[in-house]
Design a protein that fits this description.
By secondary structure, this protein is α/β, with parallel strands linked by helices. The chain has helices at about 5, 10-20, 30-35, 50-70, 85-90, 105-110, 155-170, 180-185, 225-230, 235-245, 245-255, and strands at about 75-80, 100, 120-125, 140-145, 170-180, 215-220, 255-260. It contains 11 helices and 7 strands.
């Protein structure tokens, strides 16, 4: 598994950590995989503050996805760059066709812990390619989750991925997180992903940039550290997280954007 793929262990640890504490996100599968894999994270990668952030980010994605699935019961679900994430178990397919997509090495690992069903499928592919879409129905709306993936794609690559999606589906709803340009520059020197050997990432500040050439329309910016989730922290941790890691501090580094076609 290359260094970019190894970054999947950082959010996995975060989700396992908060789940074990019984806050923010209930994710027994993350706990199971983390305990079995025992990947040797170090430094900032194992920060409890980052774990809280990863848990909150995933919960926000989950809640958005549940809402979209309820509104369109016929839509196809795509989780791009799924890693070892158990979103399909946390949210449930609920009658939807669901496709988790990631690199071949990642899907190979993933299949040790997840089994395909009539509704749930795993696609082994680089999302930057378009061929993998041939196995997904073209006649339904697609609800697309892109969590922790955009920052590893160059602007040209990200635009092409989005263009491929909007060309394939008649209608799409997309939620994606992005680094800001400040965060991308700072990442070269100070980012937990450095602990697994990754230094090249990308960021953007204007959500309208992704409208260019993709057919997408920017809808909304979501917060990744909502008060309801911060309030699940206890004692001084809640106060420290709120002051140091949430709100304006978070937005300086990370953004969460929703688009439709």
């Amino acid at each position: 598994m290359d260094n970019v793929n190894k970054t999947l262990y950082i959010p996995l640890y975060g989700k396992a950590y908060v789940s074990k504490k019984g806050i923010i996100l209930q994710d027994k599968k993350a706990e199971e995989i983390w305990e079995a894999e025992e990947f040797a994270l170090k430094g900032k990668s194992k920060s409890k503050w980052l774990a809280y952030y990863m848990g909150m980010r995933s919960k926000v994605f989950d809640l958005w996805l549940q809402e979209q699935m309820e509104e369109d019961k016929e839509a196809v679900i795509l989780h791009l760059g799924c890693g070892m994430d158990s979103r399909v178990e946390r949210v449930g397919t609920n009658g939807h066709l669901w496709y988790d997509v990631d690199f071949p090495d990642v899907i190979k690992e993933r299949k040790r812990y997840y089994a395909e069903t009539e509704e749930y499928h795993m696609i082994s592919s680089d999302v930057r390619q378009s061929e993998w879409l041939s196995g997904v129905s073209q006649d339904k709306t697609a609800i697309i989750v892109m969590e922790g993936i955009s920052m590893y794609l160059s602007p040209e690559e990200l635009t092409k991925v989005l263009e491929n999606l909007t060309k394939h589906f008649p209608k799409v709803h997309i939620l994606t997180d992005c680094y800001t340009t400040f965060a991308a520059k700072a990442s070269k020197y100070k980012n937990p992903i450095n602990d697994v050997g990754v230094t090249q990432v990308y960021g953007m500040d204007d959500p309208l940039v992704l409208e260019n050439g993709t057919g997408l329309i920017f809808v909304n910016e979501h917060g990744m550290t909502p008060a309801s989730l911060i309030n699940e922290l206890r004692g001084m941790e809640k106060s420290i997280f709120k002051k140091v890691f949430a709100g304006g501090v978070s937005k300086k580094m990370y953004r969460l954007y929703e688009y439709v076609k």
